[in-house]
Specification:
Largest sheet: none
Low-confidence stretches: none
Number of helices: 9
Shape: globular
Order of helices and strands: HHHHHHHHH
Radius of gyration: 20 Å
Number of strands: 0
Distance between the termini: 42 Å
Mean pLDDT: 85
Strand content: under 5%
Structural class: mainly alpha
Helix content: over 70%
């Protein structure tokens, strides 16, 4: 896995737990960024498992009180199915948390730290501008209504293409891959569409009048 891809993933998972102050971000050890990322994943896994357990409990209660009514039995089965899917998501989150240290060991650690530091710093420094552009670009939607993980995927991608010189197609593709890994079922399609409109908007803004 490329160092920049690891850095993007670390930035995405740690951004909510690290100080937004530029001087602190610049001095942040890679180990602290990794720890923040692992904490994010394990916290999400715990929350997901708790939701899954609640779904199993609701399904069990529905079965016990159903008196064999077909509609209640079917509803209970759906609850259990959803719980199993949530449990799988939690397992995937924990698996990702375990993989991150190995990825960093296999990569150029200096390159990972340099890029994750720059990415976190630039994303925080230009957050208001990036959010304004995204709100302007999204149709019938606003940033604050999105899941936190989707907000941060969009912010990182737009920061890369607007302020860090990353080719737009690369930034979009990487954001879509992050969304497939961490967003909801249809998240990657939504993010792909938003970022393509952002790309068009940036091109229009930079074109001569």
């Amino acid at each position: 896995m490329q160092a920049r891809r690891i850095a993007r993933e670390l930035a995405l998972l740690s951004i909510g737990q690290l100080s937004p102050k530029q001087d602190r971000l610049q001095a942040q050890p890679l180990q602290d960024v990794l720890l923040a990322a692992v904490r994010t994943l394990t916290s999400e896994a715990q929350d997901t498992l708790e939701t899954a357990a609640a779904e199993v409990s609701r399904g069990n209660e529905r079965l016990l009180s159903s008196e064999t009514r077909a509609s209640d039995v079917q509803s209970a089965k759906m609850m259990v199915t959803e719980a199993l899917e949530l449990t799988q998501t939690a397992i995937n989150r924990l698996g990702a948390a375990l993989e991150l240290p190995e990825f960093i060991q296999l990569a150029n650690q200096k390159e990972v730290r340099a890029y994750v530091t720059e990415l976190l710093s630039q994303t925080q420094a230009h957050r208001d501008e990036v959010d304004a552009l995204l709100n302007q670009t999204m149709v019938d939607w606003q940033m604050h209504r999105l899941a936190r993980i989707d907000q941060d995927i969009l912010r990182i991608a737009v920061t890369e293409m607007w302020f860090m010189g990353v080719p737009e197609q690369v930034a979009i593709n990487e954001a879509v891959e992050l969304a497939k890994r961490y967003s909801g079922e249809e998240g990657h399609r939504f993010i792909n569409g938003v970022l393509r409109r952002v790309s068009e908007q940036l091109a229009a803004n930079s074109s001569p009048a």
